[in-house]
Write a structure and sequence with these properties.
One of its GO terms (cellular component) is cytoplasm. The protein is built from eleven helices and twelve strands. The chain is an alpha/beta fold and 348 residues long. It has two domains: 193 residues, Isopropylmalate Dehydrogenase, CATH 3.40.718; 140 residues, Isopropylmalate Dehydrogenase, CATH 3.40.718. The strands form two sheets. Strands 2-1-3-12-11-4-5-10-8-9 form a ten-stranded mixed sheet, sandwiched between helices. α1 packs across α10. The structure holds 3-isopropylmalic acid (IPM) and manganese (II) ion.
């Protein structure tokens, strides 16, 4: 028996709708296992910002820290200036809780229509660095609004930050059948950061001699993701390249309705956070149209992270079985219907 204290940040738009179904899946997966879940809802996002001007206070952060994991729906709303919630809430959580491994699996489930004619057997994970790069906000602008404006966004790459994420990626590669790691960067142009990443991968490879390493410039990686995605096993890359590549990766494996992610603090000094890759989709919010599958798959990552491996497998299997029956279905199901069907399958 065990107890999970779960912080829930449903957030904006379709976030509340998909999180509800994610929680249903979680409950179903743990039913009868002796493990209980206690959720705490955090009122964060556009509503809170409009009401109070706050995005994420120290009090919120301390309260969140007292949990074992976080389930997040989506953050962002057209009524809030771009960047306010992204930086002040979502990225603040990732940075403050040291989520340096942003794990984004890409698997083409049987039955899913890929936009690629011959996708092959696609099953890779992107280990996206989560606490550095241009996301740090190290930059600035001068002479703003004049013809002489200069706007800088500096990519921060530390030996400490690169090494820890590279080591995590190697460990993940070593645990997979193909044992292959691809570093994606752009060291022919971004020579300072690029060479730090390259040297780090070379050095850490010595600890994982059975992992095969290769390297792709990020532009070439986008070609292979479309022409030969089955060549990838584990990709390790920086925060911004990882952001871009994982949207492409989602697109080739059935779209962001299916793409799950984990923001992991591997040292477990703070709770890890699980969220669908998609955003708040304000255009379809409140209509029961959102696909909760990405959130349910994120719940599988959550269960896995907390050591409930069997429960995680059952959630994944339920999703795979549900997806296999989607093609040619007579009717598109609502968010709640998909959630209910998945929960029923998980229960067995
Ligand atoms: C993601 C999102 C975020 C990111 C945005 C909303 C800040 O695109 O989770 O991929 O860039 O990391
Ligand atoms: Mn993104």
């Amino acid at each position: 028996a065990q107890h999970i204290r779960l912080a829930v940040v449903a957030g904006d738009g379709i976030g509340t709708e998909v999180v509800e179904q994610g929680l249903l899946a979680l409950e179903s997966a743990l039913h009868g296992s002796g493990t209980t879940v206690a959720t705490t809802d955090f009122d964060l996002g556009a509503r809170r910002w409009h009401a109070t001007g706050e995005t994420l206070t120290d009090t919120d952060l301390d309260a969140i820290r007292a949990h074992d994991a976080i389930l997040l729906g989506a953050i962002g709303d057209p009524t809030v200036p771009s960047g306010v919630l992204e930086r002040g809430l979502l990225l603040k959580l990732r940075f403050a809780l040291d989520h340096y491994v942003n794990l984004r699996p890409s698997k083409l489930f049987p039955g899913v229509a890929s936009p690629l004619a011959n996708p092959g057997d696609v099953d890779f994970v992107v280990v996206r660095e989560g606490t550095e790069g241009p996301y740090v906000g190290n930059g600035g602008a001068i002479r703003v609004g004049t013809p002489h404006e200069v706007a800088n966004e500096v990519s921060v790459n530390t030996a400490f930050g690169v090494e820890r994420v590279v080591r995590d990626a190697f460990a993940r590669a070593a645990a997979r059948p193909r044992k292959k790691l691809t570093l994606v960067h752009k060291h022919n142009v971004l020579v300072h950061a690029g060479h730090l990443w390259r040297r780090t991968v070379e050095a850490v490879n010595a600890e994982f001699p059975d992992v095969t390493v290769d390297y792709l410039h990020v532009d070439a990686a986008t070609i292979f993701l479309v022409t030969n995605p089955s060549r990838f096993d584990v990709i390790v890359t920086d925060n911004l390249f990882g952001d871009i590549l994982t949207d492409l990766a989602a697109a080739i494996t059935g779209g962001i309705g299916l793409a799950a992610s984990a923001n992991i603090n591997p040292d477990r000094t703070a709770p890890s956070m699980f969220e669908p890759v998609h955003g708040s989709a304000p255009d379809i919010a409140g209509q029961g149209k959102a696909d909760p599958t990405a959130t349910v798959l994120s719940v599988a990552l959550l269960l896995e992270h907390l050591g409930h491996t069997d429960a995680a497998r059952r959630v994944e299997a339920a999703v795979a079985a549900d997806i296999a029956e989607r093609r040619g279905a007579e009717r598109v199901r609502s968010t709640a219907e998909v959630g209910k069907d998945l929960a029923a399958r998980i229960a067995g």
